[in-house]
Specification:
The longest helix has 16 residues. The two termini are 26 Å apart. This protein has 225 residues and is an alpha/beta fold. The protein is globular. It has 7 helices and 10 strands. It has 2 domains: 150 residues, P-loop containing nucleotide triphosphate hydrolases (Rossmann fold), CATH 3.40.50.300; 63 residues, no CATH class. Helix 3 packs parallel to helix 5. Bound molecules: adenosine-5'-triphosphate (ATP). The site of adenosine-5'-triphosphate (ATP) has 11 residues, from helix 1. It comes from Neptunicoccus cionae. InterPro entries: AAA+_ATPase, ABC_transporter-like_ATP-bd, ABC_transporter-like_CS, ABC_transpr_LolD-like, P-loop_NTPase. GO terms for molecular function: ATP binding; ATP hydrolysis activity; transmembrane transporter activity. One of its GO terms (cellular component) is plasma membrane.
Amino acid sequence: MIELKNAGFNYGGRDILSDMTLRLSPGSFHFLTGPSGSGKTTLLNLCYQALMPTTGMVRIFEQDVRAMTRDDVARVRRRIGVVHQNCQFLDHISVRDNLTLPLAVSGRETEVDQGNVDDLLGWVGLSERGDALPAELSGGERQRAALARAIIMSPDLIIADEPTGNVDWEMAQRLIALLVELNRMGKTILIATHDLNLIRNTKSEVSARVLRINNAKLQLAGADL
Ligand SMILES: Nc1ncnc2c1ncn2[C@@H]1O[C@H](COP(=O)(O)OP(=O)(O)OP(=O)(O)O)[C@@H](O)[C@H]1O
């Protein structure tokens, strides 16, 4: 699904990621951890073609990112749902309209089925909040709305960058439970988090691999987690 081979990335000559080799197979569940500034967001960006590797190879759904046309990029992006670290929304439209925005942007507004949107809002526990404006949501509600927006296009792969960043432990567990449920439905999941307790807790629920970025290199974390 996603493959990196000796991939690296630098900003202005400074190596952020170096010699990274990784394969995400369909249906897998991965955590990505590492200290603040270690490059987690940068690596996620490589995985959905928001950044190009400066060295090595990245393949997304079997396609080399360097050989992708604009149409290819649009096609692969439709198969990936991203929950961004800062959960930005359009503030002047409702939560419900924010959720359906990805469909409208990709010319699929005819596929908007308000019944499905209601189901999705219910699934993330926001049934009563669909008509609210984003600014009226709490931190945890925003995170759940961001997850709902990421999955409205039925992506095969869900990439979440610190999806539990601004919420308490109970809400963090609820959010991760939703991602575990999506994984059980067959979705591939990649989550960046610095919260090792959350990772330990989730590993009892799902068979997850834990990757760690250390000094720009990718390692598989084991019992030392
Ligand atoms: N646009 C940019 N230009 C230059 N340097 C950048 C840019 N974006 C990020 N960096 C640097 O790249 C490094 C990795 O950043 P990144 O956001 O990937 O780390 P992170 O592990 O996700 O951090 P955090 O856990 O704090 O979100 C940091 O040193 C950061 O300062």
